[in-house]
Write a structure and sequence with these properties.
174 residues, alpha+beta, 2 domains, five-stranded mixed β-sheet, three-stranded antiparallel β-sheet, 3 helices, 15% helix
Length: 174
């Protein structure tokens, strides 16, 4: 009881002191942390939309961005799930060796399906060319999953979706 009473008295004394001229105008008073809004001159926007001012000109991101992925060895599953606004294309595969990363499902003809067939390739970057043959690994360590969204507009022109790997191709038809 005495602790809570002493805490209450101390806090009331501190808050009462905030109203006085000394502590009321100091930076210790939380009510003074932000002042009123003042007009400022706006920073002119850059006209070049490709330049991001937050990324320095000399950075790792400025290197060559060409994708070095190789076709994944075997496509095991191709699942097309209906979603609002289109479909989700989910592909499960087995890489030739463990350690493959940066998996991408790349559309070869998304803008213009040929004869109603939408073709994808499943690609991944292998671990390191020097170690590629060293560790094949078990099937569980080589599993890869990738997904891509296909819009309703694209699906309206498509009768079949194919996903190509190095050794096989799976297709899903309507």
């Amino acid at each position: 009881m005495q602790k809570s009473l002493s805490v209450l008295l101390i806090s009331s004394v501190v808050l009462a002191g905030c109203g006085q001229s000394g502590l009321g105008q100091s930076r210790l008073n939380p009510l003074n942390w932000f002042g009123s809004a003042k007009p400022v001159t706006a920073v002119p926007a850059t006209t070049d939309a490709t330049v991001n001012p937050l990324i320095p000109e000399r950075s790792r991101l400025a290197r060559d961005d060409t994708y070095q992925g190789e076709l994944v060895a075997n496509i095991t599953d191709l699942i097309v799930e209906q979603t609002p606004g289109g479909a989700l294309l989910r592909v499960n595969a087995l890489a030739a060796a463990q350690g493959s990363h940066d998996v991408r499902l790349e559309a070869l003809n998304e803008g213009e399906p040929i004869a109603g067939v939408l073709v994808y390739e499943l690609r991944a970057i292998p671990l390191n060319p020097r170690f590629r043959d060293a560790k094949v690994g078990s099937e569980a360590t080589r599993r890869i999953t990738a997904a891509a969204f296909v819009s309703e507009q694209t699906l309206a022109r498509v009768n079949s979706i194919e996903v190509r790997g190095l050794n096989n191709t799976l297709a899903s038809r309507r």
